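Researcher: Let's try something more involved. This one mixes different molecule types, so please make sure each is placed in the same coordinate frame as the others.
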Amino acid sequence: MLLETVLVVGLVASAFFAIYLEETVYAVLSLATMLIVLSTFYFSLNAPFAAIFQLAIGTGTVAIFFLAGETLTTKSGTTTSLKKKLLGLVASILLSIPCILGTEQTKTFARSTSFSLSTALWELRAIDAIAQGLVILTIALGIVFLLKEERRRS
Amino acid sequence: MDYIILSVTLLAIGIYGLVTKHDLIKVLISIELITIAASMNFVVFASLMNDSLGQTFMILALSVDSCMTAVALALAVVVYRKLKILDVTELSELKE
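Model: All components are placed in one shared frame. Result:
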């Protein structure tokens, strides 16, 4: 129960600060914290594959956001004051109270099916997984062409 | 079952960021939060039903989400190189 509470408060607070903070780099760091807490949350829900996948994808996402935040934003001097940060902390704790009260009542469903992840992924959703690979390949090629075309023009 | 409240809270934070922030990177972070709130439901319900199918759906959804983020950031880089603008309202004013 204590672990759940800490995870829920950490999740809501870091998500809130990812939006609330003015400095892009700190916002991205807050997003990284949120993704790590979310991964731990998935571990606590007995979903280790989802947790590892979330952590792996989250690392890539944060790296992209961090690079974009560093290169695209200028240091304009707008910073979040300590008073605003404390206000944000109080607001995020208030936001997480309904979640804490809600998680107390969580119960497992009586119905239970026993698919393993490999069965679910490769026997039930095989076409989806293969199509997903094609989608990712297409998107990667699209990004390469987009940036290449732009570089050629400049 | 009440993890839905957590998911709705994350969704609300994402929508708040989408509505109030004008920085393109912040808008993308908000969209990321919204998709995380949606895909979290798969894992939570799968865990409650002791089923791995939800984890599978989450893995598929998260892949598409990260691809979408990568495309959006590539577009942001192109827009910034061309126009030196990252403000969403200024970008929408360019249409007029």
